[in-house]
Amino acid sequence: MTAATVLLEGLGFGEGPRWRDGKLWFSDFYRRAVYTVDLDGTETKIVDVPQQPSGLGWLADGRLLVSSMRDRKVLRLDNDGGLVVHADLSGLADFHVNDLITDATGRAYVGNFGYDLHADMHVRDIPTILGDESAARTRVVRIEPDGEVVIAAEDMRFPNGMALIDSGRTLVVAETLRLQLTAFDLAADGSLSNRRVWASTAPQMVAPDGIAADPEGGIWVAAALGAAVVRYAEGGEVTGMVETSQNAFACALGGPDGRTLFACTAPDSDPGVVDGKALGKIEIATV
Predict the structure, then answer these.
(1) Which residues lie below 8 Å from residue 54, measured CB to CB, with a gap of 6+?
(2) Calpha distance 112→95 (Å, rounded)
(3) Smaller CB count within 10 Å for the chain: N or C?
(4) Where in this chain does the record put each SMP-30/Gluconolactonase/LRE-like region domain (predicted)?
(5) What is the average per-residue pLDDT within 68-94?
């Protein structure tokens, strides 16, 4: 097991990390903005997102897309610095929109919470919630580069982090409350088919949150309920682990050689615990 070190402290709650242009880009829920951080720890604010940012991606022309959680929209940062609505998901997202991923064409796939998980966690324990198949059942939507919105996959339980593997031919989605990574074949027109379990995380009781694929085809999974990022091979074998100082909720791979693992960590995901407390961190390890 490798132990991570801290690159950046003082976050509200980091999410949606992506390595691009020599920097880590990330959202901070409770500072309500998108930031970058260099490998020397220098942080730069990119844009404010008042309704709470999460997933990040880019159109083919380089314009940033960001999930705006509370108003259930995906926003676009145009070249003039203006933040505009790229797609309104309020008719299809059952609760806060969450992580997203974009392919090479700028087509985006977006998940959502499905329901108010944190409110439920104040009433029921985690095993009871996990055993309730009705909890957080929702869908992943696809947004075309022109902003058209279609349903990509139904019957997902808290679809969370996503990764593209097999040169973009396979989309893997973390279903947090099913304790599994679910894969789809991704066609040239963006449609998804051949749904299957890529790996179960249930044996380790890992609730998969953010995920990141590595060049060898493994997928690193932020454990959410634990202070670790765990590497899975297809089929469910655990093939690596990075220990973090607090619970890991999102991850990305990057750095000059693509071997730096970035983890967004916090003591909890409950806003009542972390909002305004500056307890979030970005931690790094070489993998």
Answers:
(1) 15, 16, 27, 29, 66, 67, 69, 96, 97, 98, 99, 100
(2) 6
(3) N
(4) 13-266
(5) 97
Residue 35 backbone class (left: φ over 0; alpha: ψ -120 to 50; beta: rest): beta
- Tokens 């985690």 belong to 126
The number of angstroms, rounded, from the C-alpha of 110 to the middle of its chain's C-alpha atoms is 10
Rounded CA-CA distance 140/101 in Å is 11
Give how many domains the chain has, as a whole number.
Answer: 1
> CB pairs under 8 A, 24+ apart, for 129-134?
129/177, 130/177, 130/179, 133/157
The β-bridge partners of 64 are: 58, 77
Tokens of 244: 């973090």
What token pair was written down for 276?
A: 């305004």
- Identify the CA nearest to 166 among candidates 187, 135, 149: 187
Q: What is the pLDDT of residue 232?
A: 98
C-alpha closest to that of 201 among 227, 171, 233: 233
Q: Is the pLDDT of residue 1 over 90?
A: no
Average pLDDT for the chain:
97
Instruction: Please state whether beta strands 228-232 and 238-243 pair in parallel, antiparallel, or not at all (unpaired).
Output: antiparallel
Domain of 259: which CATH number? 2.120.10.30
Average pLDDT over residues 254-269: 96
Domain range spanning residue 158?
2-286
Span of 85-89, 240-244, 268-272 with lowest mean pLDDT? 268-272
3-state DSSP percent of the chain in helix, strand and coil, to 5: 5, 50, 40
